[in-house]
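Hey Z.,

So I finally got round to the pyridoxal-5'-phosphate thing we talked about over coffee. Here's the setup:
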Amino acid sequence: MRWKEQLLTLIPYQPGKSIESVKRQYNLQNIVKLASNENPFGCSPEVSSLLAEIPVSMAIYPDGYATLLREKLATHLGVGQDELIFGNGSDNLIQIISRALLHPQASTVMASPTFSQYKHNAVIEGASIKEVPAINGEYDLDGMIAAIDEQTNVIWVCSPNNPTGTYIPAQRLVNFLDQVPEHILVVLDEAYSEYVIADDYYNSIELTRKYQNLIVLRTFSKIYGLAALRVGYGVANPAIIKALEPAREPFNVSAIGQLAAATALADQKFIEVCRQKNRQGLAQFYDFCHQYHLSYYPSQTNFILIDFNKDGDQVFQFLLKKGFIVRSGKALGYPTAVRITVGSTDQNTGLIEVMKQFLEGSE
Ligand SMILES: Cc1ncc(COP(=O)(O)O)c(C=O)c1O
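And the result:
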């Protein structure tokens, strides 16, 4: 077979280790997974009750237009229904955008390190990739503007950024958007926007009104606690949505996913509780870092990147053997760090205890 040559250079996305595999490998009963930035508090109890009695026919294709979810989300965000596109997770939207705009004669600009799927999809499409190194964990937006060339079709901006948890303040983002030529699509990936508490964070939905070349990506996988059901969405002006739609698979969001997401949206109290608990959890990790003089990036997300000044894989392996799955920073561009998802208070306390053992050299 004549596979695209670039596929041979890629390895599939490496997800965090699964709880089941770690149980078997280390013969442990209790595993805490804090590796993939899921919500430790699950989803709204409203969704859990709904799923117990799923009112969805398994024999009928899902609504390809996601009518109910579209209506609810448009109202929630204050946008038109024609300003929304849905994906099987926001991963799927990254793929759709890449498929629609990237090809061997096109180039694309992104930061480094950032979320791996921008580059992965750009490689598959054969586009030339311009990675602009972050400076002290912050986006080098001037560098990204300078990296634009005649062939640039897409610029990827992840804010707050994965894996650093840092965000771009409003004024800096607006200055940047002002400089991007109108024919280039700016993808603002806001998978963690609901966790942000910074005063100078922007209202990205308003920005899609001002900038006709901006699409905002969000997900129900993080604070809404529905990672397993795979629902993400994009917000942009109708012309962008219309252009992207043909690249979307017709039934890309499952019926259960649509219903659960629409139900989750209605329970904003649960989201507020999760946001607050997340800040309390982050404070536990900040205290730990201060106590042990470890550096970290202040996070606007539900994860924290901590620099242990030791091989990240070594820290990861130590924690794994004790039943805690985190992410080594090695594959994320920070070789001496680990990225930890903020868990429940007890999970955080347990993990911090084990990290102390690691640092103090005791088993
Ligand atoms: C920045 C960012 N974007 C997108 C995603 C993909 O999310 P999903 O496909 O579950 O919506 C993730 C998941 O970790 C992420 O961190």
